[in-house]
Amino acid sequence: MCAPLLQEGIRCQRALWSLAQAMAAQGLDALRFDWYGSGDSRGGSLAMSLPGLASDIQAARECLPPVDAGLSVRLSGPRLPGTRLLGLRSAALPLLLHAGASSTPVDLVLWAPALDGESLVSAWREQHRRQLHVTGRFPKPPLPAGDNELLGFVLDAGLLQALQAWKCDQVTLPAGSRIMLVQWRATASTEEFVHRQRAAGVTVEYLQLDAGDEPDWDNPDHFETQIFPRRAVNRLASHLAEMA
Asked: In whole angstroms, what is the distance from residue 59 CA to residue 73 CA?
């Protein structure tokens, strides 16, 4: 399970923890990890890079026990051996970078994926501005923030540039791969991405969530509210267990 990047990863921690716990209760193995430079992992946020994030996924996969050749992940189509990789929101960017470099089919779960890096970084910058200047949380005018400071993280300029330059049309998964797209609502970038993957021989399935349950991700007044869409977590856990 790949958490969203930066501050959103902190806010979504309970949701992914609860998802992993629910899956484990139904007999499925689940692994969560912290990106290098965040959480309990080594390094500082300045050391984070987009290629480094993609390699973190490989490092996490190497912590898993070997997959028995007789076991497989079962969905409605042909079987895929190995590990299913799940990414929430901005985790889709390093996850797709990692998966796109694979020489064999991959099995992904993309939950409300952010597929346009420029829009993602712009939203982060706007939230940062609103937290500093709109919400009224500071009794005195805050000091000017650096260009590479975002919501409590000081980042290398190269990471932000790489994220801003990333678009969903840069990655095509290996033929025979499978994606389960979990979403509250469709977006233009999502549909463009799905069309491209299907044209390359990738199976795409949908799990549609109740749009009314989608968290208010960008509301500055609810910024410190832990994001825990309980019904969505429970539905996703049940769906993954049914498919296994």
From this structure: 21
